[in-house]
Records
---
Amino acid sequence: MEAAYLELAGRIGLGQSQRIPQLFEIIADRDEAQLLLALPSDAPTLAGKLGRSEAEIEAMLKVLFVKGLVFPSSKTDPPSYRMSRDLVQFHDATILWPDAPQRFLDLWQDFMEIEWPPLAKIVSQITPRPFTRVVPVGVSVAAKTYVLAFEDIREIVENARNLAVTKCTCRLTAHKCDKKLDACIQVNRAADYTLARGTGKQLSKQQALDLIRECEEEGLIHVVMNKQSVDHFICNCCACCCQTMPILIEHNISVIEPSRFAADVDPDLCTSCRLCAERCFFGAITVEDDSPAQVNADKCMGCGLCQVPCAAEAISMKEVRAKDFVPEKAFG
């Protein structure tokens, strides 16, 4: 393994990884690796550093942008470029590389299966709060509950300036289920970015709402950044392929935070059909014999998926955490 790829892995805090340097080696040739190591910078400065023409550097930057390896900033003139800040950005951007070979995608999944779980445990121990959080599905909540704008999936969409959809990077690499692949909604700047790269498709607000409802019917959970503004993504996550769900479900590592709500069952309306228990990722709902469904509040993540198939309308979402539970800014 060449030193340049080891250094690139180190730049995103994963210099000790066995697989991240290999991923860089697949996606970037030697010249591209040297350009990445010269960042942050602009094209004229890079041309001087690397002894290439400005036109050649700009062409390389364009290729690296499509690969998901460089991110431009229009705050400077000429624009400056930087590489991925961290593992999450490297993961989400490069997996959508249009020309990614299968061995690249397979190596990503190998990393997620082998290296990610112990790394996630360390991350959960050193960060004060998880980086992402659950948002309840777009169905009714209890009348007594006040739903804030940043936890109302419909209002998030209605307030968005720009929307796009990309393939779910987790299901693209893991392919452990047949859930919807075009399901990751990009919001505002993230939508601008994916549309500029050509890795996403523009969505109208109505198309985004329709997609969200389809994801709810399919049994996917809405996940956003853990802060009081949703201006990056709305993931629609399954229990088996996701970066965060299996880590929580299988390893009990807290890398995702619940919503402010929890499911509440009206025993007089419940028909003991068990559909809610079958839908719950977290084993938070049990139904014994013909008794009404019971919710384990300690396990409930407040996603509301159990509500979607309940024909008896026996399930509502009750507020169990204060309005300031969701932080103003993301941690990490």
---
Amino acid sequence: MIEKLKGYLAEWSVFEKVWISLFTAITVYLYFAFQDTLLGLISSIAGMLCVVLVAKGKVSNYVFGIVQTVTYGYIAFGYGLYGEAMLNWLFYFPTQFIGIWMWMNHFKKKEDSEHGENVYVKRLTRKGWILVAGSFVVGALVYAELLTVLSAQQVRIDSMAVVLSVIAQILMVQRYAEQWIIWILVNILTITLWGITLVQTGGNDWNMVIMWTAFLVNSIYGYVNWVKLSKVQKAED
């Protein structure tokens, strides 16, 4: 067991080890300092492990994704962020299982792996970008109307973040490196969303802001890593 753990950690870069250790320590500190909820702590740590493993191209990310989507959806619902709650419960949660299935169908054997990744990476074409942009504009406008009817909080930011999240998740399941560009936008919007919400409501779940900040850092790293993997894969082809 110890040898297997050492072998697994050997696939992690120094940056990845430092990154996950730092943000986990900050999350635990905030849990005690601000009397955060246990659910918030669990959601934050599960979320951070999930996104790090996605950046590494590991299928195991979906295990932590299942935990994070259920817990985060509950927290968001409690703050009236119905767009975030519906996104996690009705979309993210079922797509974790779809992701497992699709990634396993394109599983990369260990002997073919450059950096311990389990997945073959694809790149988005110009036509794909046009489809992404059009879907975002139409989806954000329609979803904003729905959230307005539901009397949700921060409708404009929430609708944009949700629609971009749906697009990014679809790109993720289909193994496109450009998912990370969309995730960067999602993370910036969601950090803003939670910051405004917590200040206005006086809530204590600041772990959510830390979690999304960690996601932002990871998205930048994820993009760099996936582009690198796609170049290696292209060279091999």
---
Amino acid sequence: MEFLQDPSSTFRFSILAIVQIFVVGFCGFVAAKREILSQEGLKVLSRLIVEISLPALIFSRLLLQFKFNLFPHWWFFPLFSFFLTFLGLGIGYLFLKLSPPFAQKREFLSLIGFQNAGYLPLALATTLFPPHKADQMFIYIFLFLLGFNALLWSFGVHLLSPFKKKMRMVNLFTPPLLATLSALLLIFLNLRRFFPSLLLKPLQIVGECTVPLGLMVIGGSLAFVSPQARIKKGILMNLILAKLIALPLLVFLLIICLKPEPLIGFLMLIESGVPSATSLSIIAKHYSADCDFVNQSIFFTHLLSLFTLPLFLTLFGWWVRI
């Protein structure tokens, strides 16, 4: 891992990786500003990613690269996704107690508890690691998403719904989750050799579109943050402190205590340090939550993560070299 060689190279590689990611996202931002992409177009792209390209990426990569004997602790990743979400919600609750009363409590907690768990970590793995290490990181991220997606589209929807929408089991089985479970089942039953390569190769090609399309959707979504909406500076500052500082700092201390292998530690830190999930904007709009507050928070957590992520990656590099 070249970018962990010394503190200056870690910081430099991290900055370069995140800038490259944001350049791709900026293309989506420009496309939205120039009305090449409308809000409806972004919804269509989001559905394309969530229902087709991301499941194709997950299914093909797992089928080609995952073996239970090579990943004996695979169960750790979905469990860690649950732990991280509820740790974030706990930190959010503490920051709520320190803030003056305000109306957006559900939104505040959701924005801290749920992060951009897929597109940004996948893009960072692609940018920072050589191919063989990036492939291993992809497996870790997919296994993490196994738990994260189940929580986001059940408990996350329930949390953001002002009418406390009843959690339904059917909401758990999103296409990415089904793709993960299907691939793991084929591997567990030793049936992957019967899956035709004639189908697997097209799935790989479709899956390769996921990261750039996902980043463009993020950038395009940020273009629709309402400039007229009044920014709640104090609340937003507490949210940023909780999401981008307190949460990754606690996880970094946990990494020091647990001493996981570097790639697992990297996943733990990245998943705790990335900004709020853009999917929350879609959920907020659908369930009549405060969309302006959610969109502003997503925008500013993404913007400020340009500075906070490299700092925590530098700390991680320092820990790896000890």
